[in-house]
Design brief:
Layout (H helix, E strand, L loop, with lengths): L1 E7 L3 H14 L6 E4 L3 H8 L5 H9 L2 E6 L16 H9 L4 E7 L12 H4 L3 E7 L9 E5 L5 E5 L5 H16 L4 E6 L5 H14 L6 E6 H10 L6 E4 L1 H14 L7 E5 L5 E5 L16 H13 L4 H16 L13 H11 L1
Parallel strand pairs: 1-2, 1-3, 3-12, 5-10, 8-9, 8-10
Antiparallel strand pairs: 4-5, 4-11, 6-7, 11-12
Helix pairs in contact: 1-10, 1-12, 6-7, 8-9, 10-11, 11-12
The structure holds 1,4-dihydronicotinamide adenine dinucleotide, 2-OXO-4-methylpentanoic acid and magnesium ion.
The site of magnesium ion has 3 residues, from helix 9.
Length: 347
C-alpha cells in the first residue's frame, strides 16, 4: 500500500496530518506513506507548484492523499506557476476524470446546517463531477481588443468521449445506490451542454434500471436548498460540479465535512477534502480535519478494496459528531488535533 501524501498549503498540512494518524492507527499491512511537495509550498522550494519529482512520486504510488493548495500571496504569478496548478496538473496528468463528492447529514447535525432540519435530514446524495475538461482546461487568455478594451476568455468545451465516460461513472454509481441519476447542465443556452445532454440520453440506453432526469444548473442550485432529498446521484461538468458541491456542503453542515475521490479508470485515485487551503484560519489549529479523514476512508474503499476499514473510519467520524465533538465550522470549540484525537479514540 504505497500512498503519496501531498499536504500542500494553508490548512492542508494540518488536516492531512490527522488523516495520516487515522491511516497509521489501522495497522494496514504494507502501508508506506511517501511525502511530496505541491502548491505554493512546492513553488517556494522548487520554483514550480507541481515539480517533476512530485509527479514521479504520484506515479510510483497506488493512491494520493491530498490536502489543499492555494496561497493568495502567489496570485500575481503567471497562471502556470500558481499553486492551484498542482491539483489541476495531477488531475490531468493522471487522468483523474471522475470526481465523487458525497454529501449526507450525520446524526446530530440535522439542526446545524443552513437548511431547516426537516429539509436537511433527507440529504444523502452523490455529486459525480467531470474533472478533466470544461472551461477549466480549455484554451484561455487575456488580450486587448482593437478598441483598446481588455478581454479575458476561457473556452468551454466537451468532446463526446469525455461526456460518455463520466456518464458511465454516473450511471454505475446510481446502480449501487438509489438508481436515480440527475444530469445537471445548461442546455437551454450552451452547446457544450446540449452535447452533454444528448450523450447522457444515449448512454442511458445501457442502464435501463436507472431513471435519468435532466435539470438546468440554475434550477439545480435552487432545488439543492429547496428539496435536496430528491437527489440520489447528480452528474455534471467540472465548473457546475465545483460550485454545487460547495453549496451541498452547507446543506449538510460544513465544508469541513465533505470528502472526495478523484478517480482514473481502474483503482488509482487522488483523495482530498473539497475545501481549499482556507488561509483565513491556517496555522491556528482550527480547521476541521473530518473531510480529509473521510477522504482517506474513500481511498481505502476505492483504491484498495478495504470496505470494512473504510466503514470503520466513517463510523468513527459519525460517532465523534454524535458525541458532540465539533469544530468552529459547526459552532463547536474542538480544534484540529482534538477532532483527530476524538476520531482516533472511537476507531
Ligand atoms: N483542491 C484545492 O486544493 C482547492 C484549493 N482552493 C484554493 O484555496 C484557497 C482558498 O480558497 P477559498 O475560496 O477561500 O475556499 P476554502 O475552501 O479554502 O475556504 C472557504 C471558507 O471555508 C472555510 N473552511 C474551509 N475548509 C475548512 C475546514 N476544514 N474547517 C473549517 N473551515 C473551513 C475557510 O476558513 C473559509 O472561510 C484559494 O487559493 C483557492 O484557489 C480552493 C478550493 C479547492
Ligand atoms: C483547482 C481548484 C481550486 C478547484 C476547486 O475549487 C475544486 O476542485 O474544488
Ligand atoms: Mg471547489
Amino acid at each position: 500500500m504505497r500512498i503519496a501524501v501531498f499536504a500542500g498549503d494553508g490548512i492542508g498540512p494540518e488536516v492531512t496530518a490527522q488523516a495520516v494518524r487515522v491511516l497509521e492507527a489501522l495497522d494496514l499491512p504494507g502501508l508506506e506513506l511517501v511525502e511530496g511537495d505541491v502548491g505554493g509550498a512546492a513553488y517556494r522550494k522548487h520554483g514550480h507548484p507541481l515539480p517533476q519529482a512530485t509527479l514521479e512520486i504520484a506515479r510510483s504510488c497506488e493512491a494520493i492523499l491530498f490536502g489543499a493548495v492555494g496561497d493568495f500571496t502567489l496570485d500575481h504569478l503567471e497562471r502556470a506557476l500558481r499553486p492551484e496548478q498542482a491539483v489541476l496538473g495531477l488531475r490531468k496528468e493522471l487522468g483523474l476524470f471522475a470526481n465523487l463528492r458525497p454529501a449526507r447529514v450525520f446524526k446530530g447535525l440535522e439542526g446545524l446546517t443552513s437548511l431547516r432540519p426537516e429539509v436537511a435530514q433527507k440529504i444523502d446524495l452523490l455529486i459525480v463531477r467531470e474533472l478533466n475538461g470544461d472551461v477549466y482546461f480549455g484554451e484561455k487568455g487575456m488580450r486587448t481588443l482593437d478598441d483598446g478594451r481588455r478581454q479575458g476568455w476561457d473556452m468551454m468545451s466537451y468532446a463526446e468521449d469525455e461526456v460518455r465516460r463520466i456518464a458511465h461513472s454516473g450511471f454505475r454509481a446510481a446502480m449501487t445506490r438509489g438508481k436515480k441519476l440527475c444530469s445537471v447542465d445548461k442546455a437551454n443556452v450552451l452547446e457544450t451542454s446540449q452535447l452533454w445532454r444528448d450523450v447522457m440520453i444515449e448512454v442511458s440506453a445501457e442502464y435501463p434500471e436507472v431513471e435519468l432526469t435532466h435539470m438546468y444548473v440554475d434550477n439545480a442550485a435552487m432545488q439543492l436548498v429547496k428539496n435536496p432529498g430528491q437527489f440520489d446521484v447528480v452528474v455534471t461538468g467540472n465548473l457546475f460540479g465545483d460550485i454545487l458541491s460547495d453549496q451541498a456542503s452547507m446543506c449538510v453542515g460544513s465544508i469541513g465535512l465533505l470528502a472526495s475521490a478523484s478517480l482514473a479508470e481502474g483503482t488509482y485515485g487522488l483523495y482530498e477534502p473539497i475545501h481549499g487551503s482556507a488561509p483565513d484560519i491556517a496555522g491556528k489549529g482550527l480547521a476541521n480535519p473530518m473531510a480529509t479523514i473521510l477522504s482517506a476512508a474513500m481511498m481505502l474503499r476505492h483504491s484498495f478494496g478495504l470496505e470494512a476499514e473504510a466503514v470503520r473510519i466513517e463510523d468513527a467520524v459519525a460517532a465523534a459528531l454524535a458525541d458532540g465533538i465539533k469544530g468552529g465550522d459547526l459552532g463547536g470549540e474542538a480544534g484540529t488535533q482534538e477532532i483527530g484525537d476524538a476520531v482516533l479514540a472511537r476507531l
